[in-house]
Write a structure and sequence with these properties.
alpha/beta; ten-stranded mixed sheet; 10 strands; 26% strand
Length: 224
């Protein structure tokens, strides 16, 4: 994997991904996504895992290795069959629904972020425990308040893995600090979600890093 551009001046082979992806400050919330060249955020299986490759997986694991928590939308957690990770999984659900495969997770391994009006609030508190449920906002999840609540728990280096609706909402709320995006050298056609789904949003980003391996492009953009 070689460095095409790096705002900090690194050149040559990307031998230390941890250093290349170190947040410039804390707290920090980055979102990591993958896309085909024609804009698909998943493949025929409906999962992002059907379009990523080994280069993308190395960056994926490097980002997870330095994260204090992994933030993911409930729909993505269900579709991608998320399991308990080394750090807490933070599930964002406006309806207050915990994905079935995570309902019996050990204490502290899964946090649910929802709003006060969610129909599933009582059930998720019973399933996970009161201290594992974060209520922010009345009818919609307040993502800025979510970030603040996680930081208060000592979770300062936050990695979100989407999906596309959560990425859109994080950008619209001003809660995202960085977008990490992999373009795999693949075209699949058909109808698939893009990395951003939902109402229009206008977010300006600045390129901080661009890597390449075998035609795969992997970049970091800072949200201005």
């Amino acid at each position: 994997m070689r460095i095409l551009t790096d705002e900090r001046g690194a050149t040559g082979e990307a031998t230390d991904l941890a250093e290349l992806y170190r947040p410039p400050t804390l707290p920090w919330l980055r979102v990591n996504m993958v896309s085909t060249l024609d804009g698909a955020a998943n493949g025929e299986s409906g999962k992002s895992g059907s379009i990523n490759n080994e280069a993308d997986k190395r960056v994926f694991h490097a980002l997870r290795a330095q994260a204090d928590a992994i933030v993911v939308g409930a729909g993505t957690a269900r579709t991608e069959r998320y399991r308990v990770a080394d750090v807490p999984l933070v599930i964002v659900s406006h309806r207050g629904l915990v994905p079935e495969q995570l309902r019996d997770a050990p204490a502290g391994k899964v946090l649910l972020v929802t709003c006060a009006d969610s129909l599933g609030l009582g059930a998720c508190r019973e399933s996970l425990g009161d201290n594992q449920v974060i209520v922010v906002g009345e009818s919609q999840v307040d993502l800025v308040a979510m970030k603040e609540a996680l930081v208060e728990r000592g979770l300062r280096n936050l990695l979100s893995e989407g999906g596309p609706h959560l990425l859109r909402d994080l950008l619209a709320a001003g809660a995202a600090d960085e977008l990490c995006l992999t373009w795999v050298p693949q075209l699949i056609g058909g109808v698939h979600p893009r990395i951003l789904e939902g109402a229009p949003v206008d977010a300006a980003l600045r390129l901080a890093l661009l890597l390449e391996e075998g035609g795969t492009l992997i970049g970091r953009w800072i949200v201005d």
